[in-house]
Amino acid sequence: MKDRLEALRREALAQLQEVADPGRLNDLRVQYLGKKGQLTEVLRGMGGLSAEERPVIGQVANDVRAAIEGVIAEKQAAFDRADTERRLAAETIDVSLPGKAGARGGIHPLTKVTQEIEDIFLGMGYTVAEGPEVETDYFNFEALNLPKNHPARDMQDSFYITDEILLRTHTSPVQIRTMQAANGKTPLKVICPGKVYRRDDDDATHSFMFHQIEGLVVGPNIRMSDLKGTLLQFVQQMYGAQVQIRLRPSFFPFTEPSAEVDVTCTQCGGHGCRMCKHTGWIEILGCGMVHPKVLEHGGYDPKEVSGFAFGMGVERIALLKYDIDDIRHFYNNDLRFLSQFARM
């Protein structure tokens, strides 16, 4: 058996010296060292050896295995080095070439406008408040003077989750939560930005999800003239000192009196054009004096304090500011559209 092992060693080493590719090297490894390889076949005959012969033959077998494995390792290392050198030659990089600049993103136009609106009102002493997008019927409707079966609820077709839980249709619930948290303290000046949801069909001017910013001021002797002055300052900082506003009577359940606010057309300066339908004015937001029942739900005595509120759609503000004709551009993630605002 010792002679067979020595002969196997010579045969294996001779064949390994002639190996020219990794595939052939692996075949020889399996042929000699595999579970069904020649060395394993020889070792299976050790059961017939005497106790004195087994250690001697076992040592020879280990030497043969070590010799074969050593040559295989050397050959494999040589093949690996050659492959590395080949790939390095094929993948040479000229480090002196200028690098490729990465694409730079920018702030989304709706985020940009929201931040600008917040900055304007922060400069007027307001604070920013946020609330949940999934609201209770109480905060979304009842506390805002919209009890069950109130016909004005039809103005806002809602996404209900249960009979008492829905996706908020406006950010006005945040006003109620903020008033209740204030525990009757005045003055209260807050804006409430966030997403809102309504069952609208998507078109150039509507979306089932959009962004609103509501404003609320509560304190002694708050008047309609305070509201008008606040909104005039806002639109002039947003669109320019030449822009004027007008208030038209309207109806909202949570304010009384209520008004729609128009601004002079940003395209024609109030002279009349297709954008303003030749009226010189464009509707921008709704507002009014806070209804006494809303003040009561917020924890205030309407005999002691008064307040005003307003609400605007961020998309509407952005459409006018950037002269955009379709609200869907904000949500289509078209880089050709969005990249324009990275430079602004």
UniProtKB/TrEMBL annotation:
It is found in: Cytoplasm. Its cofactor is Mg(2+). Mg(2+) binds at E256. Residues 111-320 form the Aminoacyl-transfer RNA synthetases class-II family profile domain. GO terms for cellular component: cytoplasm. Its EC number is 6.1.1.20. One of its GO terms (biological process) is phenylalanyl-tRNA aminoacylation. One of its GO terms (molecular function) is transferase activity. Binds 2 magnesium ions per tetramer. PROSITE patterns: AA_TRNA_LIGASE_II (PS50862). Keywords: Aminoacyl-tRNA synthetase, ATP-binding, Cytoplasm, Ligase, Magnesium, Metal-binding, Nucleotide-binding, Protein biosynthesis. It catalyses: tRNA(Phe) + L-phenylalanine + ATP = L-phenylalanyl-tRNA(Phe) + AMP + diphosphate + H(+). The keyword Ligase applies. Pfam families: Phe_tRNA-synt_N, tRNA-synt_2d. Its main location: cytoplasm. InterPro entries: aa-tRNA-synth_II, aa-tRNA-synth_II/BPL/LPL, Phe-tRNA-synth_IIc_asu, Phe-tRNA_ligase_II_N, Phe_tRNA_ligase_alpha1_bac, Phenylalanyl-tRNA_Synthase, tRNA-bd_arm. HAMAP family: Phe_tRNA_synth_alpha1 (MF_00281). NCBIfam families: pheS. Belongs to the class-II aminoacyl-tRNA synthetase family. Phe-tRNA synthetase alpha subunit type 1 subfamily. Tetramer of two alpha and two beta subunits. This is Phenylalanine--tRNA ligase alpha subunit.
